[in-house]
Amino acid sequence: MSYDNVCKYLAEQYPAEFAKWLLAIESTDIEVLKTELTLEPIRADALTFLRTANQILHLEFQTLPYSEPAIPFRMLDYSVRLKRQYRCTVTQVVIFLQETTNQVAFTQEYRDDTTTHHYRVLRLWEQDSTPFLTNPALLSCYASKLDMIQLGNNPSNPPRVSPSPRLRVCFNKQFKSVTAYP
Predict the structure, then answer these.
(1) DSSP secondary-structure letter at 133?
(2) Are the C-beta atoms of residues 98 and 63 closer than 8 Å to each other?
(3) Could you give the CA distance from residue 112 to residue 123 in angstroms, rounded to a whole number?
(4) CA-CA distance, 99 to 20, in Å (whole number)?
(5) I want to staple 97 with a disulfide (CB 3.0 to 4.6 A). Which of 3, 87, 110, 144 is the partner?
(6) What does the pLDDT average to over 74-101?
(7) Rg, Å, the chain Cα set
(8) 65 prior amide bond cis, ω within 30
(9) Helices marked H in 45-153
């Protein structure tokens, strides 16, 4: 029998003694938990593997600052799972699409007594519009920042309603062409 198996057995048989020794806590209300840790499936919003950098870019898009579990804890959970599965660097970015003053949109870490995990937070309303307007792939992400978007079949037909003070954008339904009017 190996030493670690003996120690596992003793920890299960005498949990109060281990708690007293390692945590300096005396307790008679102790429950030995199952040692098999289960993981519920979760889905990330977007994962991109950058082979040349051996890195994963993980994006989470948020319209609201509330979620269950909370966003910082979710980011830790995603990171650990991605590292376990792919064994490479994971860069995480939470992109808040709608303006909010909620503290979660300004929080870039999960922290508790034993763990600190960092991730980036991007608040779309603080971003310069130029990269979004010059790249149609990014435009629909930026659209949540705009006050008005018109979907139409003819991108050369400007909106009939008052345009946003910031910008008005027209694009066809297939996103094949984009026209921005300052």
Answers:
(1) H
(2) yes
(3) 24
(4) 49
(5) 144
(6) 94
(7) 24
(8) no
(9) 71-86, 130-133, 136-142
